[in-house]
Amino acid sequence: MGMPEGILVAVTDHAAERYRQRVGTRTGSVDVKPEIAARVSAAFAKGRYSVVRGALHVVDEQLGGVVYVCRHDRDSRELLVITLWEEGEDARVPSRYTNALRRDDHLVRDRRDG
């Protein structure tokens, strides 16, 4: 893996909400999307990523344990941050809560469906 050149990073509303819940904001901004995009871009440029089941996992270099799950379009040089989670024992939202929510995912319907 060579050093990647510039890449465009977009962030979903879901990823922004999870970031607010788990990390808060480091800049004091109301909109955390630019903050996430900057963190993902910096980590990606330093090679702090791996491919897992077709998704790109980017590891934040300053926020230990924060992993951003992205879709990567190599042709257009774009990353879309879909979601994020924390790894490790000191996670702000332990995985047991995330795993419990995952069991109920089938009960949640998309509001756009009517």
Describe this protein's structure.
- With 114 residues, the chain is of the alpha+beta class.
- It has a single domain (8-107), classed as 2-Layer Sandwich (YaeB-like fold).
- The chain contains 3 helices and 5 strands, in the order E-H-H-E-E-E-E-H.
- It has helices at 13-22, 33-45, 95-103, and strands at residues 8-11, 49-52, 55-59, 66-73, 78-86.
- The longest helix has 13 residues, at 33-45.
Question: How would you summarize the topology of this molecule?
Answer:
Elements (H helix, E strand, L loop, with lengths): L7 E4 L1 H10 L10 H13 L3 E4 L2 E5 L6 E8 L4 E9 L8 H9 L11
Parallel strand pairs: 1-5
Antiparallel strand pairs: 2-3, 3-4, 4-5
Number of helices: 3
CATH architecture: 2-Layer Sandwich
In total, the number of domains comes to 1
| Multimeric status of the protein | single chain
Keywords:
YaeB-like fold; 114 residues; single chain; 3 helices
In short:
The protein is of the alpha+beta class. It has a single domain, classed as YaeB-like fold.
